[in-house]
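Lab manual, section 2.4: Encoding a predicted structure.

Procedure: take the sequence of the chain (478 residues), apply the prediction step described in section 2.3, and record the output as structure tokens. A sample record is shown.
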Amino acid sequence: MIIVGITLWYSNHIAGKIREEEREKVRLWSAAIERRAELVEFTENLFENLRDEERKKANLLAKAYQILSDPNDQNDLTFVTDFIWSNTTIPILIYDEKGELSNSANLPEGRESERSFVDSLYRVMRAKYEPIRFQEVGVKVYYNDSYIFMELQHTMDDLINSFISETVINSASVPVIVTDSTQLQVIRVGNIDTTSVDISIAQRLADMKKENTPIRVKLPGQGEQFIFYEDSQVLKQLQLFPVFQLILIGVFLLISYLIFSTFRKAEQNQVWVGMAKETAHQLGTPLSSLMAWSSLLEAQGVDSATMIELNKDIERLNTITDRFSKIGSVPELLDLDVEEVVTKALGYLMPRVSSRVQFRITNETPHLRAFINASLFGWVLENLVKNAVDAMDGEGSIQARIFAENDTPCVELIDSGKGIAKSKWNTVFQPGYTTKKRGWGLGLSLVKRIIENYHKGRIYIRSSEPGKGTTFRIELTN
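Recorded output:
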């Protein structure tokens, strides 16, 4: 927990620093945008003054030609002609009485002889300004705004367009929307995938406005515009980074726990196997001796009834030894009749428990078969019966119910003992759990291991109630 806490704190600290740095960049960017907008407006004012001057020149030149077209004897035309000849910026086309171009002035260098260019310029001039006519000689003078004026206009348009484009492009990965003065009509969009936007532009603008105050700019010829922006995707991802890191740490801890649990179970299995095989080995020597003594006693003519019971117990010890020797190895499962296996296992236990315990076997599905290892399955029933007898204090009833449910062979062992609280239904199968003063708590754990690991079946408490007994159900494979 300390490592997790320190890691989360440090990552959150780093993310916070990056967040502040990016927001500072956005603040600088927004300030630069406002400053550039002011510069654009200032440049427009300068250009406007220059445009006014160029227009005045064009108007004066037109008046000068008009004076020449209708001269007055009282006027001195020297100044007028000097003004006309001093024109170096306003383009002029002069056509004779036949409509042929007779002269021109201030056309772009090298293009005076291009007929297509001159004809295009003629059409523009004729549409824009009324020509000045010299009736006596049939000459018409066409003129236009100066090239300086047009160049200024073109430059200003490029400046405005580049301002909007660079505002969008150089927004440092910040999503940007440029709108008109109504804040409804979108002009440009930057760093926003419009094809994957799930919400409307109006809602996006409202969200941006809540996050950051829109930047107000005033562009020449376009009026007021507003620049909406929000935190970049990188910044938003940084804010979620600690959460993702916590999830990754949690996954790592879960995997570590599962690995540890697997190793622990493997170690428990090794302990089980080692203890079982050692027990089988230790039982082997006295069991061989008992079998020899049994043969000797029979030869000496000991009562046959006594020898029958003695041999039963020897056979029982041999079965127990066989059971322990099979722990840790793959047992052989045979297709057996379930009723026969249950009857044989309980038949040995019935005379060896209290006579006040009543046994009953009911088979609801005759000839029911399952894959069983008779020796290990008998061990399961033995443990369940012994626990039931202890729970009944040696007095009560035990019923073995054999049936099939959904084609699954089942055996239920029902006792009239003290019962088990529902909160303990899973706990009773854990190693070490016991209610007996001298018990090790291994019986039901061994039962679960035999049924689920070796028989690929299932064992669980189907029902139990304190004071009313318990029902264990075993589900086998057929």
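Check your result against the sample. The first helix runs from residue 2 to 69.
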